[in-house]
Amino acid sequence: MRALAAGEKVTRAGVAAEVGLTRATVSTLVDELLAAGLLEERGAQRPGTVGRPGTALGLSATGPAGVGAEIGVDHLAACVVDLRGTVRCRTEAPAANRDRPAPAVLAELAELTARVTKEAQEAGLRPVGTTVAVPGLVGRDRGTVLRAPNLGWEDVPVAAALGANTVVENEANLGALAELWLGGHDRLADFVHVSAEIGIGAALVVEGRLFRGARGFAGELGHVPVRPDGPLCSCGAHGCLETYAGEEALLRSAGVATARGPAALRKAAREGDPAALRALEEAGAALGIALSGAVNLLDPQAVVVGGPLADLAPWLLPGVRRELAARVTDRQWRPEDLVTSRLGRDGVLRGAAYSSVRTVLDDPASWINGSAVTPGGLEG
Amino acid sequence: MRALAAGEKVTRAGVAAEVGLTRATVSTLVDELLAAGLLEERGAQRPGTVGRPGTALGLSATGPAGVGAEIGVDHLAACVVDLRGTVRCRTEAPAANRDRPAPAVLAELAELTARVTKEAQEAGLRPVGTTVAVPGLVGRDRGTVLRAPNLGWEDVPVAAALGANTVVENEANLGALAELWLGGHDRLADFVHVSAEIGIGAALVVEGRLFRGARGFAGELGHVPVRPDGPLCSCGAHGCLETYAGEEALLRSAGVATARGPAALRKAAREGDPAALRALEEAGAALGIALSGAVNLLDPQAVVVGGPLADLAPWLLPGVRRELAARVTDRQWRPEDLVTSRLGRDGVLRGAAYSSVRTVLDDPASWINGSAVTPGGLEG
């Protein structure tokens, strides 16, 4: 299944060579997977290759699917992806979730997930589970949001409100996993993924797995000190990255009213507004200083800027790149190791949905035998 | 072997319960290990426990042993440890290795390792390999020092000069592994280990393994920016941690001549010299700022201060602790999560020696069958 998911060696013979089993064994396995609806045949392989042409195989476009849901500060969204990671249904609703009672938020989200689930079922897909992305810290049970300051939530049992086979995960982590799984990078397995909505979060992927830290708090790039005597941060410290490059700080320094949001800032930058350009340049430099520390400590292959930040990349990245070049001198750090995500704002939601269905790739036998598949292939 | 190395369940029955094999199987294995000289019996277990008293078992104090060697800027050292990690022979020589021709350094080191190896053999030990600690970057072959700026070395084939079964490893990494293996901490598997001789290095241990980064450069704490507009660093950037807390900067700011070294600084601090105390306080604060970033990013269980830095702990640590408390606010960071190593300066050398013999713990069968044991159990 993994060989096929990677889109390589897509005939029975190719898979056999890839995984080191005999052609006969692979044929038996493939027949089982075809019968279970996990694979589909796509006709004869293109001519020109040596030997008898094989039948091209691919992951099924029907069969198991994953539901993703996202709770943002100002929106809710849900989608379904198939085994290939392709989005098959999607819905979104603007919402003012800050300090809104959690039950109301969750009831509305449950409606959205029910809607996309039904739509997916009508298209012949079989959703196996739901992963909810939240801008906060998730408990070890993978069901409770311990703390989401920007929503005003503490100890909210999110999974329980959304039915069976639901897990909850931090949005920065899902953004990073989406980049790993669906970002279209070749062999990118060790990277720092930076994203931001209101706060600035990062997630670390190490050897193709999410790095969570000893207590699950890893990736707090927003509170890395940039200037130790800088402005007071909401966390109580001074000069954290968020006081320079967090959304609120950025909008204020650009002279854009907070209520108008990042879209207004992007517009101002595109129109060449000097205050906006200066604010973005300075935020980029602060981000570059904090990332220099991260790169010196972690030695990742790349830094990926994703989420809403990616929309501001043209104006943010020059400062980031300059600081990295000046401060990471002791190794091969190349300008092209700073990458903008191609997934954009949808990365988190797609990562959530795909993580719900990845367990089937990891363990097709459970699916075939009809045993319960628990969503959340979150370890990459 | 691991159950016995941990010093737990030290009878055959205890080991059986621990590893989930039958008493009979464990007895057979134990007899083989006894015959091979890897274990020894230590008489009846202390009374008072339930059931028939078993015979206490322990790792052999004779049998396989590991050789460690250390190339410092101003000294060379070698030692041998047994399977238990106990130092059995040790020798050290002051040396002025900065810019001294590498062949001369290596010839002298080979003499020291030959001396401790002979002494160990005479004590009935059988050294299985040598690990050399160097203050520099080591190639993927684990034999070549790619770059050691403080020695003035580039591309020096260290292992080849020291005979068969030799590997080379960065000193900061070995210091961290020593802390993991021999530091006497209970269940400490995720930590940042800070050490310094001339530069400031850190090594990250994650889930009980060294974290090397994508290209082997992880842990460059010395070049994490503390004040982005601070003093020019030797690396070309401004305000790196090393410009505040590196040995040279620290001695200068304390008004101690570089040639007199850290011992003179320690003496001045002990005598209450105001310049020395202020310099150490400021270096501690800078270290605390850099470590705050590391803790926010990595969420380790602990930060361990080891190596020569540990000798300055009484004066450095208050500043470190204060900055961590002020800047790591978003999680449970407790003052006692900042730990001073109990291994002191010898950590690196002991880590080197123990890593040479750990492969026998990991794979006793190869030892018993007489197949070549390659030193370097460096993955923890």
Automatic annotation (TrEMBL), chains A, B:
Q: What is this protein called?
A: ROK family protein
Q: Give the residues annotated as coiled coil.
A: none
Give the similarity note: Belongs to the ROK (NagC/XylR) family.
Give the organism the record lists.
Streptomyces polygonati
Matching entries from Gene3D superfamilies are given as: 3.30.420.40, Winged helix-like DNA-binding domain superfamily/Winged helix DNA-binding domain
What InterPro entries does its record include? ATPase_NBD, ROK, WH-like_DNA-bd_sf, WH_DNA-bd_sf
